[in-house]
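Project standup — Tuesday

K.O.: blocked on the structure for the chain from last sprint. Re-posting the sequence here as requested.
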Amino acid sequence: MNPRANHHCGNFRNGPITRRDMLSTVSSGFGMLALAGLLGRRAQAVDAVERALDARALRATHFPPRARSVIFLYQDGAPSQVDTFDPKPRLVDYDGKPFPMAMAPTQFNNNGNTLASPWKFRRYGESGLPVSELFPHVAGVADELCVIRSMTSEFSEHTNANYFLHTGLGIPGRPSMGAWCSYGLGSENDDLPGFVVIEGGLVPPGGLDCFGAGFLPARHQGSVMRPRGEAIANATPRDAGDAQLRKRQLIARLDSAFAHETGAEAVESAIANHELAYRMQAAVPELAALDGESEETKRLYGFDSEFEPTRIYARECCLARRLVERGVRFVEVTIPRTLGDRWDQHGDLKAGHEANARAIDQPIAALIMDLRRRGLLESTLVVWAAEFGRTPFAQGTNGRDHNPFGYTVWMAGGGSKPGVIGATDEFGYRAVDKPYQIHDLHATMLHLLGVDHHRLTFRSGGRDHRLTDVHGKLIEGAIA
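H.V.: unblocked you, prediction finished:
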């Protein structure tokens, strides 16, 4: 007999019982097994629901991984490549003169003359890597950086470019790269999510869809934490033990009945999320206790900086280190709000870029040094990237417009190979040597995690999907 036979209107014939019907109803379903963990019978229940929900995920990596975790330092708004890590002396020769190359349409089409960088570059480390004076602290870890100067994007508008950067497609609704990592590899800590976003005050254009799970099970979406106050709202139980127990028992009955009737995977994911939220009530307060770090560590990151955005980002980067230390697979760190807002300087380039660089420079360098001294840099891939770059000619007189044709990202640790890869033309406008696409960055990140991007798939809408879609190649020279 079909266990759903008594729950429809009677106008449809009963179908034969399916395997999903059986799994979702026998013994109140796998979701009920997971929820039993809330009531003290966790171990076997969690194993069962994970097997049911993750049957299509990887059982192991495709090859030995170089990295265990990723920290993605998202540079919201797009810093200028020619003012940070890609010096172009020819801009000085043409400064204030008409730009000598053909210009593609820009976001605002208020194009001015060639604009030289207001900042000087110096070479640092044994590698002699050129770094702008915007980043004196990051310059101190120059020998750790794998700088890719030939990244490109398909979009020149923030929202679509952010979807593309995060999900590999320029429209909302697709799983974020962090969700793919969580789905394929899981978390090494049962009490914390596999994908965490540390939000420092700015949500990217495109909103929370940049961190979503799309068609993957919902528990792989990014869990948003904040670097100050309570890291996650309501992470600390508000009820006494008995009151909380009664609420959990009520939720168990309601979820059990609903899961029994629907058998929907979304319900099972919601139950799994509920259980994780309960376990996080114990794990998150300890995780977020940043004041327990040593005074030396807090000074290293910049907890005591006179500039508040630096203090915020210092706590973000320190929290990111604590997360990967505890086995979280993918951590995205957003930038704080500064005097110039995001890196999106359509005007007043000098003040805006200096404010943003001041906020992130010391904490990023500290993160790399701290990971290295704790023996975590070898297993943690740090990625610094934005949705596109900026034009080498002015917008108006003192800003830069959006430029998707050639810009810089960099990686450190996690099996990446220090050095410089690719090049833009002599003005820093277009990638001319080894141009790469966001799909290639995603493929390389997965490869360093031990995953073949062609083989990490999820079937939805009648076909197999992957983070790189039908694209993606490894970035030549980026893998040590």
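K.O.: great, moving the ticket to review. Residues 349-373 form the longest helix (25 residues). The first strand starts at residue 69 and ends at 74.
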